[in-house]
Model the fold of this input.
Amino acid sequence: MSNNNLSFSFGGLNKESINKHIISLLEIERHTSFSSWDKKNFTVELELKDVLSFILFIDEEVAGFSILSQKTKDCVHLHRFCLAKKWQGRGIGKIMMAESIKRAKTIKASYFSLKVPVDNQQGLNFYNNFNFKDLFIQDDYFFKVLCLM
Ligand SMILES: CC(C)(COP(=O)(O)OP(=O)(O)OC[C@H]1O[C@@H](n2cnc3c(N)ncnc32)[C@H](O)[C@@H]1OP(=O)(O)O)[C@@H](O)C(=O)NCCC(=O)NCCS
Done:
């Protein structure tokens, strides 16, 4: 895939790729997230995580990641969604979300859920553009869901 002469690819997120790219993944996580993950958070085993999650490479450099798992029979949950600061504001997050939703549909999920801090205006605008609906607020997070049917 390419955009403005940039070359995009989606790589698998599994033990091997996490080990290989952990420094870049942690750096992106630290600079873009409201709470910091360590390597253990990346490697925790979750249902269909390997199949659904991905690392985004731009010109072969780690640019972002989407960490997904099957939460229930019908629902895929987005655990982490980050794009390195230098690539933000250019429509690349939209490409990552479209890929995340596409992957959820491949396992025939009906719902796509996530949570976002109530003070993350950037994230809230982003998800609202995709038509995510508020389910409830808990511990300063909005719980949101997108119907895929
Ligand atoms: C959220 C994130 C993935 C968006 O990626 P992005 O490539 O910057 O977003 P895009 O350029 O594709 O923009 C898509 C929409 O998001 C919203 N958006 C993006 N940046 C924004 C900003 N700085 N302020 C407000 N809204 C913003 C806009 O609605 C935009 O749509 P528009 O361009 O039609 O106005 C990225 O900013 C990121 O990694 N942020 C830090 C981590 C994070 O907040 N993750 C999600 C919540 S847990």
